[in-house]
């Protein structure tokens, strides 16, 4: 049985009552969908406040793109991009997640008051576990085969779902052995992180085969797995992303990470109403 109370820094999030929506704020120049739109601090803050007004449950802020082939960013640049945004948002009564894999960045943003670390390297960088163990932040463990520079170069698995499950379970075991409580941990199967197109859709179909003890975060909004099926036009990416998000929720995801908060929440309301009809 999955943990239904998720400890996330200053917040305790109920994962039983409804799906939780995490909104994306990319303070980057090269993210695959909205790179450059919010690199300006003021624009990023305005966008974050817009997502809050639309009803987002968690803000996920990233300052380095992890799309396939993206350029790496130094810790100093990442921190300089993140801290002003965090400072402006941390008192707005909304959990703040930071998308980073660098221990030095983790420490800076946790000291600044963030609530969740979302790490595509799954806290495997030396020092990461030691840093997060000193705080009460939530942790999102992401599966990735390889690393962003080459992860999409012909990914292969012996057994896709079993391999992902084993990877996530081993990382979570290391976290809990270090003293991190289970109710601080989320798992993310890593859509697009070393996966073929068919792999991504097989994961959606088999989400409920992941370890049921830990909540699942699904992040597939606007990714190529969507555009490769429905086309690259914005409206198609939106409708395709919402369809995939609803399928993830149906198959066990507790949190969905999205660009289009308002439209996703509207779709979830309809889905929830249908579920309540006798």
From TrEMBL:
Its cofactor is Mg(2+). It catalyses: (7,8-dihydropterin-6-yl)methyl diphosphate + 4-aminobenzoate = 7,8-dihydropteroate + diphosphate. The keyword Manganese does not apply. GO terms for biological process: folic acid biosynthetic process; tetrahydrofolate biosynthetic process. The keyword Magnesium applies. Gene3D superfamilies: Dihydropteroate synthase-like. Its EC number is 2.5.1.15. InterPro entries: DHP_synth-like, DHP_synth_dom, Dihydropteroate_synth-like_sf, Pterin-binding_dom. One of its GO terms (molecular function) is metal ion binding. One of its GO terms (cellular component) is cytosol. It is an enzyme of class 2 (transferase). Keywords: Folate biosynthesis, Magnesium, Metal-binding, Transferase. SUPFAM superfamilies: Dihydropteroate synthetase-like. CDD domains: DHPS (cd00739). Pathway: Cofactor biosynthesis; tetrahydrofolate biosynthesis; 7,8-dihydrofolate from 2-amino-4-hydroxy-6-hydroxymethyl-7,8-dihydropteridine diphosphate and 4-aminobenzoate: step 1/2. Residues 19-269 form the Pterin-binding domain. Belongs to the DHPS family. Catalyzes the condensation of para-aminobenzoate (pABA) with 6-hydroxymethyl-7,8-dihydropterin diphosphate (DHPt-PP) to form 7,8-dihydropteroate (H2Pte), the immediate precursor of folate derivatives. This is Dihydropteroate synthase. It comes from Candidatus Kinetoplastidibacterium kentomonadis. The lineage of its organism: Bacteria, Pseudomonadati, Pseudomonadota, Betaproteobacteria, Candidatus Kinetoplastidibacterium. The gene is folP.
């Amino acid at each position: 049985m999955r943990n239904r109370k998720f400890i996330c820094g200053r917040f305790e999030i109920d994962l039983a009552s409804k799906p939780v929506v995490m909104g994306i704020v990319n303070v980057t120049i090269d993210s695959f969908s909205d790179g450059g739109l919010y690199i300006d601090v003021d624009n990023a803050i305005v966008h974050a406040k817009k997502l809050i007004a639309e009803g987002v449950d968690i803000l996920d802020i990233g300052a380095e793109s992890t799309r396939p082939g993206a350029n790496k960013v130094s810790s100093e640049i990442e921190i300089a991009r993140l801290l002003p945004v965090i400072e402006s948002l941390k008192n707005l009564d909304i959990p703040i997640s930071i998308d980073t894999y660098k221990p030095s960045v983790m420490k800076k943003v946790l000291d600044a008051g963030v609530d969740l670390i979302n790490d595509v390297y799954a806290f495997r960088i030396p020092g990461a576990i030691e840093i997060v163990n000193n705080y009460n932040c939530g942790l999102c463990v992401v599966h990735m085969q390889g690393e962003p520079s080459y992860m999409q170069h012909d990914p292969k698995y012996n057994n896709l779902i079993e391999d992902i499950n084993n990877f996530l379970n081993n990382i979570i075991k290391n976290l809990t052995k270090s003293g991190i409580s289970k109710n601080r941990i989320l798992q993310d199967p890593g859509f697009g992180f070393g996966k073929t197109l068919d792999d991504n859709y097989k994961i959606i179909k088999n989400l409920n085969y992941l370890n049921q003890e830990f909540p699942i975060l699904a992040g597939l909004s606007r990714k190529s797995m969507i555009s490769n099926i429905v086309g690259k036009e914005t409206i198609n990416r939106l409708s395709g992303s919402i369809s995939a998000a609803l399928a993830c929720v149906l198959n066990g995801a507790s949190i969905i990470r999205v660009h289009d908060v308002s439209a996703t929440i509207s779709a979830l309301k309809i889905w929830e109403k249908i579920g309540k009809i006798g």
